[in-house]
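Deviations from the work plan: none for this task. Representative record:
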Amino acid sequence: MRFLQLLLIILFSTLGSFAQKGKIEGKVTDAKTGQPLAGVSVINKLNEHGTSTDLEGRYTINIENGAKISLVFTYNGVTQQVDDIEIKEGKITTQNLSLVQREKTEEGVVVRAASTARRETAASLITFQKNTNTVASVISAESIRRSPDKTTGEVLKRTPGASLIDGRFLVIRGLADRYNQAMLNGILLTSTEPDRKTFSFDIIPSSMIDNIIINKAFVPELPGEWAGGLIQVNTKDIPSQNFLNIQVGTGFNSQTIGNDFYKAKGGKLDWLGIDDGTRGLPDNYTTKSGFNLATQDQRNAIGKELNNNWSAEAGKVSPNVSFQANGGFTGTLFGKKMGGIIGLNYSKTSRYTDILNRIQTLENGVFSQQYSYDDARYTQEVTVGALASISLQLNKANKIGLKSIINVNTNNYSIRRNGVNNNNNDDVNGGEVTFKENTFFTTQLTGNIISRSTEIQMVWLF
Amino acid sequence: MGNSLAQESGSRVFQTLNDYIYTAGGDLAYTFDLFGQKQTIKGGYMLQVKDRLFDAQLFANYLPKDNPSLRQLPIDQIFAPGNFGDGAAESTQFAFNSINNRNFRYLSNTILNAISCNLTTRWATSSASCGAYG
């Protein structure tokens, strides 16, 4: 089936930023092991101001002027300088570093030669790839920020070996979506479709992602119920600064706009993708076994009570709508550093598909047609989602976080069918109206403990 | 419209699928110096409980005895409450019933306990792993 689709998207986007200063953030890892380094001193060479990295090796520094700066990293008697870091006013610049630690044979303080910002960012990525004990692809927040992608699905399709079907289902290394498994912040995700095992990657906005790791080989500490790839999506916790992004979009499809669009009568909350009870079973229906015990008269009474919306009626369709808002905040609670992000997204899309639906058989050299239907399918898809994440840094060694995601994904469609059923010589003129509502809710509590004296790191989750 | 229950015409399907996944676990990493090189031992435990409830209810309207004038009514009028009869074998009005199948309802549960350990050495950048689940 092939149809021509012309899509015009007008995107209005507003970017609000509370901070007028530039900011630099990044992660310092050990060049040999790839482990994050906590307590690395990071100094801005211009004004000698600085900070030190936290237990995940992360740091943030405010920069007064939009210029090129140099940072000096010092850890365990090793000093390494990174030059040519370009700071844009009001923007966040990411500068990661993989630090080469002092070898036992080296004496005294070691000062390594200065290198450039670009080379160091690439080096950190290479260090990660080199040090993982598995075959994995990594997509960092930095590369997501550079791309125009809106959803996790769009981000994932840029990975080698991955392709996207219907804009949301992921095929990895040629293995269909049901052979892949998705995880969110270390927790296995359920299927988002009621009739098959898959995950719809358009429900997580890309602005909420910190990184994505696609494992292509099994590791002992992660679930093994996949064959193509294990997609680990990790969302941001404490943002580096307050932010608010609002994006409103609209578009239309030449196959739907201006033409008749058939839709069944629905409830008041259809625009939110939620059925308000219009399509539900009547009050006099109790349970499945109760129905089976009822008399024929009682059953007919239930049949009469059911809504009588069997037909899809022609109407005009409004343009597609999409709305996305996400905000982040940082602050202190009881003197502890805390932060969080909140995101909302909504989209409504209308689609028309013309399907030629036939079954033909070839038996003993005789070719026969079972049926031939011409199906016109009118689909309206609604996605509503919200994400909230709060993290609290108790001290240098303890961090605790709470994350919740709720998502409603609804497919409301009608099919108008015309054709012939050759099995019983019937001319068929029929239809189908369906409302498929999919609600997804996850909440998790995680903690991170690091003991520097014994170098024990512990991660727990619920 | 047939004179027996059929999913092909005059039918309605109500189905729900609920998946509940509960996960708890922890990972521990210990780094130490041995023979002048950094060695890392990692261990982890995971408990995962998965529950699934599936329920489908299929209904259909049917005509116990054929009634062409009723059968040819437009789709928005055909199933009006007034067109339902008593469901008797000789009735020419609609009757309502459910299509039953034992596969239309199920409940499933999985409990997974998994432990893992991993030793990464730096002598030749090698690592050894183990895992068990049940």
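Chain B touches chain A through 57 residues (CB under 8 Å).
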